[in-house]
Write a structure and sequence with these properties.
Elements: E1 3-8, H1 17-25, E2 34-38, H2 41-49, E3 54-59
Antiparallel strand pairs: 1-2, 1-3
InterPro entries: Ribo_uL30_ferredoxin-like_sf, Ribosomal_uL30_bac-type, Ribosomal_uL30_ferredoxin-like
Subunit structure: Part of the 50S ribosomal subunit.
Domain Large ribosomal subunit protein uL30-like ferredoxin-like fold: 4-54
């Protein structure tokens, strides 16, 4: 499995508390912050929950 680069592109203001908690778990706390995360089912599930707030790019190694 590879890695995923996830970037917060939309503010979580006025979105449900569980989506904000998911962003905190992904360590995406500020706009335009990027994180490289392992590509596994748990991370994919968290990203799917907030996919309308983030931009996802698969990193090829």
């Amino acid at each position: 499995m590879g890695t995923l680069r996830v970037k917060l592109v939309r503010s979580p203001i006025d979105f449900p508390r569980d989506q904000k908690a998911t962003l905190r778990a992904l360590k995406l706390t500020k706009m335009n912050r990027e994180r490289e995360l392992p590509d596994n089912p748990s991370v994919r599930g968290m990203i799917r929950k907030v996919e309308h707030l983030v931009q996802i790019v698969e990193v090829k190694e």
